[in-house]
Structure of FMN dependent NADH:quinone oxidoreductase:
Amino acid sequence: MIHASNFASFAQELSIKACFFAPAAGCNLLPIVNPRPTMKLLRIDASARLDGSHSRDLGDHFCAALRDAVPNLDITVRDLATKPTELIQDTTIVGFYTPGDEMTSAMRQATALSDQLIDELQAADTLLLTVPMYNFSIPAALKAWIDQVVRINHTFSYNGTAFTGLVKARQAYVVCAYGAAGYAPGEGFEAANFLQPYMQFLLQFLGIDSIDFAAVQATTADEQTVATNTTTAKAQIDQWVMRYA
Ligand SMILES: Cc1cc2nc3c(=O)[nH]c(=O)nc-3n(C[C@H](O)[C@H](O)[C@H](O)COP(=O)(O)O)c2cc1C
């Protein structure tokens, strides 16, 4: 639970990573022979560029590597550039805060896309978000999706004092592209990075306790710099995939 009055400790609280394997009560313990990893991955692409996008390239690299490591891999792609998410409207918001049995047909219609996007989100156990920096933050296309899926009693709850994230996925990977350099922690442009801290906070708020970021910076620099930075980001992504090997 996240206490509204104590957001400072909330990131720390949720960053604790744990993995428990417990037999169901009354079950005999059977040896597990060569368990085959399974994954239901929801990939969300946010770059407006369909060709030459560095964030999509990192996402493609991750998915290709995962296909080798995870035999039972099921990927759903939500491309926010080719299929933009409608912005929420007045009736959408009223619908979000109206109990199901009191909703009018107009409210149901206005919240239908949110229902669909949340169903898609809740079917995933792992998320991949490919995110370019636009004007020091995330693209509007991604914000429109976020406004549809961050919904009380569906993806988070609030009991008057504390928030609880309700998203079922336990792991999120976020791959980013920045036109300039210097956005990493400790670097000169860190204060202008409203992309990574925002995505970190949001995903934690939704209840995802393990969040990894990889980025290619300086995508507008010379070819050699871009190639070097891309290689470094892909090596980091390869390390993530090793977890499933
Ligand atoms: C609308 C727009 C705004 C941008 N704003 C920034 C910015 O604030 N800071 C930055 O470093 N790069 C900025 N860029 C550059 C992109 O972050 C860079 O081109 C990145 O590679 C885009 O991701 P993509 O290659 O996946 O399309 C901007 C690009 C666009 C199109």
